[in-house]
Amino acid sequence: MNTASNAATVRTAPAANTTWLSKLRALALHALNLHLQNCAVLAEAHRRPQ
């Protein structure tokens, strides 16, 4: 998925990771990862023959 690039992005974030904007960004990245995982599951289910 997209976890490698997200992990790299998290590592390069500033040390003061307590602002509301950084928390919102982390939440958005987590939601994006969940969405991509869900899309992968649906695509795999759709790909398999009935």
Brief synopsis:
The chain is mainly alpha-helical and 50 residues long. 74% of the residues lie in helices and 0% in strands.
Low-confidence stretches: none
List the total number of helices: 2
Task: Measure the end-to-end span.
Answer: 26 Å
> So what's the overall shape?
rod-shaped
The H/E string reads: HH
Structural class: mainly alpha
Largest sheet: none
Helix amount: over 70%
Assembly classification: single chain
Average pLDDT value?
80
Rounded Rg: 15 Å
Keywords:
50 residues; mainly alpha
Can you describe this structure?
- The chain has helices at 3-11, 20-47.
- It is rod-shaped, with a radius of gyration of 15 Å.
- The longest helix has 28 residues, at 20-47.
- With 50 residues, the protein is mainly alpha-helical.
- The protein is built from two helices and no strands.
Q: How does the SSE layout of this entry go?
A:
Blueprint: H1 3-11, H2 20-47
